[in-house]
Amino acid sequence: MIESKLSVFTLCIRYFFSKDSEIEGEHLVNDHWLTASYPDSDVAQSDYVSVARKQVKQVKETIRWLGCISLQQSSQFCCQLFARCVVSCGEILMPPLEYLQIGIFLVSLLLLAKPLGIYIARVYSSEYTSLNRVLQPIERLIYRITQVDQSQEMSWKSYTIVLLLFNLFGFIALFAMLLLQGMLPLNPQQFGMVQIALAFNTAVSFVTNTNWQAYGGETTMSYFSQMVGLGVQNFVSAATGMAAMAALIRGLARKTATTLGNFWVDLVRSTLYVLLPLSFVLAVALIWQGVPQTFQSYQSVQLVEAIPDTSGSATTHQTLPLGPAASQIAIKQLGTNGGGFFNVNSAHPFENPTPLSNLLEMLVILLIPAALCFTFGKMVGDKRQGNALLIVMFVLLLGFLAVAVEQEVTGNPRLTTLGVDQSSTDQQPGGNMEGKEVRFGVVNSAIWATATTAVSNGSVNAMHDSFTPLGGLAPMLLMQLGEIVFGGVGSGLYGMLIFVIVAVFIAGLMVGRTPEYLGKKIEAFEMKMASIVLLVPIALVLIGTAIAVLLPAAKASVYNPGAHGFSEILYAFSSAANNNGSAFGGLSANTNFYNVALGIAMMLGRFMVIIPVLAIAGSMVQKRSVPAGPGTFPTHGWLFVVVLSAVILVVGALSFFPALALGPIVEHLQLWQ
User: Is the dihedral of CA 89, 91, 94, 100 positive or negative?
Assistant: First the structure.
């Protein structure tokens, strides 16, 4: 089998480097070579030739259509994408074009991240940017109205108190808005008040940048609640994370200071200079692709043909939900919020109508978190430091992406035994298509699932509950690692920097030297705070899951028995405590228990992490910077990349492996037994 796959791969390579006229001929293919390559195959040799020729021509035509690079340059790039083009029993499991999609996605992300990261660094350093002429007068007007002195900086304690009070006010305002929804304007469907436990859960969810949703947007929320309530929190919760990150970077970069900046200035500049311009551009692009942006009420349209409802009566009309969706979807992706305007999130054709909208939304999910690595490098004065963090994040992302894609492309073995064809052909995408949109297919669904959980986004274009056991384990473990593989805007980078502190401390102990990072010593206080940051989400996930599997009221919400039902509960608390927001949909979460328990997990998982992060920033900013010596452990080389990656994986594996063994791992063994 392996020899056959490698032979077909070699054949694809030979065709790819040939001229188009030669592809149409047969002289590149030696009959004797083909016979030797497939001695036991029942498939005609010509089938392998036609498969290789067809796939290569499709890729070449796609590259020419893109017109961004020459064919010779693209050959080296695309040959790497063929490396996993496998042929089994004459049927391709995954076409090379799918790997081309992965390549375009990853390359586009890197190309866009660097200039954005440098721009964000200039924003936080109050340097001149291309938008200053337009936005600076607005910024000054905001400070004048709010009586904020932008030159007055704060200590870490003041910064933390102001941050917490601002978010407390946001929670109270949103909670009240949801309870009073029926009395507020822009409510064409006349939705009433949101039930109290659900309102509490939703308010906490959006204030903490989690966007866990135990409701359907088009059946619960008015336009006013979506825009003024949830939409505003999408902006300011993202800006809060970015502000905390900026404070930590200043704590590491400044030389013997006492302040970390001004929270109000960081909040305003994050929103005004970064989130709003990017959201405007993306919203326009989504409207162009067909996402609605209107205040019209829902529209009733006549069906092409009548269909029977549950009572057997004929249904001739369908109600189409509308609303100001494009503007909300733009910030939900850019701000790593993830909450859907409609119930099925970005699987809904009004949220994500085309392959291009799908690519744009996937890109912006990771864009700001990736860009912040370059921001970090510029702000600390050593670009290599940011590059090292980016490499660690990228390597971990690729590893989990490979697992998710492999498992979903392979499909469900139980269906194979029933004679179901799960191969990829011109007529079907192949693989495990349960819970996925046909217009996106398996690979784009797996990319999105990996991206949305590597980042604390939580939006979905496919149902994670329908993934294969190990295909669902990949996004679950990405959340359990602490949302630091890119992570949320701001929160992902400061979470990764906590792991850096731990890795540097461990490396220092191994060689018997006082650990240092960026010239500042890591001491007992920093390690205590770092331990809190790492242990709080872990405890919330495991303790919350344990309580849920013991209480009858919590178990009543599980519709899938056995290992998968346990996975649904574990996924829910992993998502809440790490502020992701995605879910395994088989869990009925709109109950008093889950609304309250997950709300508490979201709140503690957000602010019990931010507080020690800012405490570390306040401690580090006061320390003198010591020049690097011959015994200093370099934190920008490949050795540090390996050490940091190992620390991240070991912490995750040791903390969650027993729980994962009871859920997705045992389910995988049952599926393949």
Answer: positive
Write the CB contacts of 435 (distance below 8 Å, at least 6 apart in sequence): 462, 463, 464, 465, 466, 467
Contact 163, 243 (CB under 8 A): yes
pLDDT tens per residue across span 64-99: 444 444 434 444 444 444 443 433 333 334 556 777
Residue 182: partners with Cβ closer than 8 Å, 6 or more residues away: 190, 191, 192, 193
Q: Kindly state the tokens that stand for 503.
A: 């890795």
Contacts of 103 (CB under 8 A, 6+ apart): 77, 78, 80, 81
By three-state DSSP, how is residue 306 classified? strand
Phi-psi region of 551 (alpha: psi -120 to 50; beta: other; left: phi over 0): beta
Average pLDDT, the chain: 87
pLDDT single digits (tens) 549-568? 999 999 999 988 899 999 99
The gap between the terminal CA atoms of the chain, to the nearest Å, is: 21
Cβ(101)–Cβ(443) below 8 Å: yes
Question: Rounded to the nearest 5 degrees, what angle is found at the Cα of 176, between the Cα atoms of 142 and 195?
Answer: 145
Using DSSP, state whether 181 is helix, strand or coil. Answer: helix
10 Å Cβ neighbour count for 639?
A: 12
Q: Closest by alpha carbon to 516, among 662, 630, 613?
A: 630
State the pLDDT at residue 53: 54
The count of other CB atoms within 10 Å of the CB of residue 179 is 16
Please count the other Cβ atoms lying within 10 Å of the Cβ belonging to residue 246.
31
CB 342 within 8 A of CB 218: yes
pTM above 0.90, yes or no: no
- Residue 22, both tokens: 């030669």
Structure tokens given for 498? 């906590």
Residue 335 contacts residue 209 (beta carbons within 8 Å): yes
Report the run of H or E that residue 91 belongs to, with start and end.
Answer: strand 91-92
Query: Coil, helix or strand for 92?
Result: strand
d(CA 249, CA 241): 12
Residues near 6 by Cβ (< 8 Å), separated by ≥ 6?
A: none
Q: Strand, helix or coil at 316?
A: strand
Q: What is the per-residue pLDDT for 66?
A: 40
Residues in the chain, total: 673
Q: Rounding to the nearest 10 degrees, give the CA dihedral for residues 199, 201, 206, 208.
A: 140
Give the per-residue pLDDT at 308: 86
Token pair in block for residue 248: 């930590």
Alpha helices in 180-231 (DSSP H): 196-207, 217-220, 223-224
Is the pLDDT at 51 greater than 70, yes or no? no
The rounded distance, in Å, linking the Cα atoms of 222 and 182 is 8
